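Re: your question from the hallway

Yes, I did run it. Sequences:
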Amino acid sequence: MSDSTVLDTVLTNPAVGSSPTGLVQSRSDEMIVNLGPQHPATHGVLQIVLGIDGERVTSATPHIGFLHRNHEKIEEARTYEQVIPYLDRMDYVSGLQNELPYILAIEELSGIEVPERAKYIRTALFELNRVISHLVWLGTYLLDLGAITPFLYAFRDRELALDIIEKTAGARLLPNYYTFGGVRRDIHPLFWQNLGEFCDYFETVIPEYAALTIDAPIFQARTIDVGFLNAATAINHGITGPNLRAAGVAHDLRKDQPYDAYPELDFDVITLERGDAYARSKVRFEEFYQSLSLIRQCIEKAPRSGAFKGKGRVKIEEYQQRYKAVEASRGQLGVFVASDGGTGPYRSKHRSPSFTNLQVIPDLFIGQKFADVIAILGSIDIVLGEVDR
Amino acid sequence: MSNISSKNSIKAPSDRPFLNRALPKDRHFRPKLGGYNPNKPNLLAKILSYGALFLLMFSMIAAMFSTVPWLFRMEGSPLAVHGQFTVAGSIIYAITASVFAFLAVAVAALILILLLRKYLAVVQNRYGPVHNGPGGAFQTIADAFKLVSKEDFMPGDADPWVFTLAPVMVFVSAFLLMAVIPFGPDWVLADINVGLLFIIAAGTLGAYGVLVAGWSVNNKFSLLGGLRATAQLVSYEIPLAISLLSVGIWVGSLNLADIVEAQRNWWCFIPLFISAVVYLIASLAEIKMTPFDLPEAESELIAGFHTEYSGMRFGFFFVAEFAELFLLPAIAVVLFFGGYQQPLAFLVDFGAIIGSIGAEGSVLHQFSRLLANSYGLFWFLAKTAIVSWLIMWIRATLPRFRDDQLMELCWKVLIPLSIFGLFIAIILRLVFK
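Structure:
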């Protein structure tokens, strides 16, 4: 137990009047600080009402809803096909991933078969989106910690990945590319080659990022032993994704409930035991390598010819419902779709990982330093578009 | 696939050819920016406009030390008798010199802001400023005009006197350092025997300004920033002062001109290497640059102690920060890197050779002294630029510390190190002098 942890226990426990070292607990006036909604480090319009005593946080209340765009209600008034572009706009950092759970659910409800080739295309782009999303996390997190340069590097390489998506889907951030039974249009002839080139290039720059971040002493000083999230707390709060895996729980829907081409791919679930901000960063770094490996396996195993879209159209006769979830870059991204036999969803409910992961921050913040609040919030990696929907 | 490397695009580094062929050719359209195409810089115009900025600063310093006194001492001038200033002459010279010193610091800050932005752009694969002037050379001048023309706004809850005084105090504390820095063999405004103590005293004033800036505006982020800044600046004054004093002990004088003259053979950083390193780190904290930019930590405290400042009031903080980015490296150069001394001055000192031309008092001698001092000023500014660049490099690379780590670094590492450096200075002094 480090010194700061001892002090935390003392300061947050009202029953303890003095610390084990004999220091008398001292308190100044509590100050309420509104962190956000217009704050550079809340990654959007999140408001956290912090009570701080000097530099130490005594209470934290997140307020969300500033970016609420009524996604679920809008989807009720759209046809199944028209819903897909809205999904991109939830987690705009990894737009393509949002489409998949909904599409999987509808495919299952209406019994549309997906051709093998389309599955591999989907999976490769899904993993490419994970790289894009983690790059944005990397850049913004380092920005939160005060280093500006890695942000620009991350966005430089993110551009290359976005270019591949643009060449394939026609759009960069919000591609609207997946569709029922496969993908919307066929890939271009150099798709697999470009992906391979990107993997070769990106593998060479990950060590550079590591040198600026997880291997750098100041980064380690800022993240190690900061924001402990143990497995029990994580599971109780429904935390998923890298945050859960960093707490030592081997939960990964790509393994547990495989979809698309994942059953054919070979990979291990990355877990670390510590559960602090550093472990969460490290897991994401490992996932860079993992995603590249998965993309390479897709390149290797994908059929070079065949249909890009399965036959069949969406037809859901009577009342049916389905919940499907995928392992998006931030965790379990699920959608519950209910149909009453009409042309569009009767009700859809999105289970967004950022929203669930955000719940734990009061637990993580209390007793920490004000600067750590930013470090923890960044390491949880939330996207407000997905939290508020 | 190598269809990008047209003459209109940036070449990727040779070890990453993938960058070159990421995009199809038509996607690589880059618009002309304000009539100036950053892909085709007019090199001559760039050199001329950047050179003009440096020349401006150079001439400010030269005017302050050479032209103005020369004018005052001209035949028939009421301000000087037999080459010595009268009382009125001294007062008028002090005022005039301060104006030129202010201009010199302001121009130095403008140049450094521009260079920092350009350097960060180089590090981060960007262009940096390109719109105003060739290669963006006049960007900071345009920014200065923008700041001056903004509304002079004060929050309703602010204490008007303190709010107004704080940026002035911060700027003055940086600007005061100009008084004792020797820019050339003859070029020092106040040749006082307690120059080192003056540096410590003037630097401390800045902490006061930052504290009241954070305190005066009734903003919680400002208050936190002000508190952090006070803790940081007061703590880092100590290793800074101790490493300064080790130079004083090694040289045996607190007069900066003497200290520079004593470094003719050996620059102080060779015997006092530890003190030099401690000074550089502590001066980073004094400038409030990354990794010590906690007082204005953007991602935590918006802008820290100057959150509520806008317009030229903010401009004063901004200029003060960059004036310190010039002046603290300048002090490092004076104390540790030989000041205006040319490197290897003990072999052949061109400054001394130039400066000894002509008989004492003749016009030729005056001119040769001007040349010798300009030669010293050139070396002084060149070394200062290198130390400033070092700070910019650190700023471009590192994230920032947390406040307790900052304090730990100061009290547990830097202060013991600086005391160790002080002992080394004492021992070396006893052994070699």
